[in-house]
Amino acid sequence: MEMTEMNKGILFIISGPAGSGKGTVVRELISSHSDIKLSVSATTRSPRPGEENGVHYHFITKDEFERRIKNGEILEYTTYCENYYGTPLKEVNEALERGNDIILEIEVDGAMQVKKKIENSVTIMLTPPDSVTLENRLRSRGTETDEVIKWRLERAKEEIRLLPDYDYSVINEDGMSDKCAEQIYGIICAEHKRTLHTRDIIKKFI
Amino acid sequence: MEMTEMNKGILFIISGPAGSGKGTVVRELISSHSDIKLSVSATTRSPRPGEENGVHYHFITKDEFERRIKNGEILEYTTYCENYYGTPLKEVNEALERGNDIILEIEVDGAMQVKKKIENSVTIMLTPPDSVTLENRLRSRGTETDEVIKWRLERAKEEIRLLPDYDYSVINEDGMSDKCAEQIYGIICAEHKRTLHTRDIIKKFI
User: Fold this and answer.
1) Smallest Cβ distance to A205: which of B157, B169, B191?
2) A123-172 pLDDT, tens digit each
3) Is residue A3 part of a domain?
């Protein structure tokens, strides 16, 4: 991650269908590379015990969330169990200006939306290795009916079909989330070597 | 370098001005990663003791070389001390079809020429860290007059100005060619994760 001081950070949008294990992989990536920061989402749900405002989430009211959506201050958002979850635009931009890389872990439908809004952002799709593994992972949660699982499986497959729209894809095999995280870290390092980000070196030869 | 059997290899064009140390870095890269092959050039110069035809160079006659140029069978070429040096197109294409990655170490003026001819090839420019280091490296050869060194320095700086035309650039610091080679290897691995090369995974979910 050697960067010159002038360089802006890069936004990496990591996404993938249910069963891709993106949550685990992103946690792995963040915990082994302290130079990479995860964007802190805003939410309207109540804090759970142990959750800190500004660390786990920015906890805000529904009115405030809707005001921010209206003002274009939310990069992307989704609703789950009647609560909003979203990414504050200002925080992302400030971190990038400071030269920090930001990881955004979001659902597939939001990824392309965000890529268009943040210049030079990079999209990475995580996938399971195949459809048998995908189904096993969805079933192993054990909490859903067959019908729900079937629906989630179909939805996951549809999302994987969007893979060509992404810049990169990485396979997350069972029990190999550390390897998957390292492959993503390799992509992050390589992206910093793109001449889009390295062209300032020319100044050292004038 | 995990690739599915169907995938074609990728051509990596590694270039840089005199003093970038590209020769050393590429040797380092090849020797530590047996899965990466260096393209074998054709030349009209005579073999030196120990040089094997087809290993160090394809040794061919001047007439044959000129016939191949005329027929478009040479991807790029240059002349040095009245001898031709060039890259046979057929060999590169065959290796890529077999799924092998190929490294082409060439001069800056040939790199863009080749990129246009080989689809999805990737260009990487190696640079010294700054102009003082560049000049030291050019002087340390000790065989050239001040005038020649000055000319080579100016030419190197002009070539570095072409960096934005390349996909990636990597700095080769003094005594760090192994680190530089690993950064290039990182770029190679990351390029294989581009959805251009990974989209076949979708077939596993149909």
Assistant:
1) B157
2) 999 999 999 999 999 998 777 789 999 999 999 999 999 999 999 999 99
3) no
Contact A169 B198 (CB under 8 A): yes
Q: Which of B72, B75, B1, B81 is nearest to B35 (CA)?
A: B1
CA distance B173 to B177: 7
B23 closest CA partner among B106, B130, B138, B123: B106
Task: Let me know if residue A74 belongs to a domain.
Answer: yes
Task: Say how far apart CA A58 and CA A47 lie, in whole Å.
Answer: 9
Q: What is the span of the domain harbouring residue A165?
A: 11-192
Condensed to tens digits (0 to 9), the pLDDT of residues B43-84 reads 999 999 999 999 889 999 999 999 999 999 999 998 888 999
Q: Cα(B128)–Cα(B172) distance, rounded to whole angstroms? A: 5
Rounded to two decimals, the pTM is: 0.91
Q: Which two tokens stand for residue A205?
A: 């030869």
Check CB contact of B173 with chain A, cutoff 8 Å.
no
- How many domains, chain B? 1
Residue B6 in domain: no
